[in-house]
């Protein structure tokens, strides 16, 4: 009789552990599915990133005007102004 009781306890414990493991796997699978669904939704909602376009001449002129104003106000040094001006002109 003690042998049958021990076998029943071991079998019951093994069954319980097996159920716990399966429940954990089911939860992991459900979470992964939710993550996959959210990523798919975000991919659909996110617009394609536009290619970096060169600034228009008007934008470049506005930037140069602003730089000149900063130079005149003493915010920029002549060297800083020249460096930024070169970058803007190179992008045109």
Provide a concise account of the structure shown.
The protein has 92 residues and is mainly α. The chain has helices at residues 2-45, 57-73, 78-90. It folds into 2 domains: 1-46; 57-90.
Strand and helix layout:
Blueprint: H1 2-45, H2 57-73, H3 78-90
Protein architecture, described:
With 92 residues, the chain is an all-alpha fold. It folds into 2 domains: 1-46; 57-90. The chain has 3 helices and no strands. It has helices at 2-45, 57-73, 78-90. α2 (57-73) runs antiparallel to α3 (78-90). The protein is rod-shaped and about 100 Å long. The protein starts with a helix and ends with a helix. The model has no long low-confidence stretch (mean pLDDT 83).
What distinguishing features does this structure have?
92 residues
Describe the biggest sheet? none
Q: What's the number of helices?
A: 3
What is the H/E order? HHH
Q: Briefly note the structural class of the backbone.
A: mainly alpha
What's the overall average pLDDT, rounded? 83
Low-pLDDT residue spans: none
The number of distinct β-strands equals: 0
Summarize the amount of helix as a percent range. Answer: over 70%
The rounded distance between the terminal residues' Cα atoms is 93 Å
Taken from the alpha-carbon principal axes, the silhouette is rod-shaped
Taken together, the total number of domains comes to 2
Q: How large is the radius of gyration?
A: 34 Å
Strand percentage: under 5%
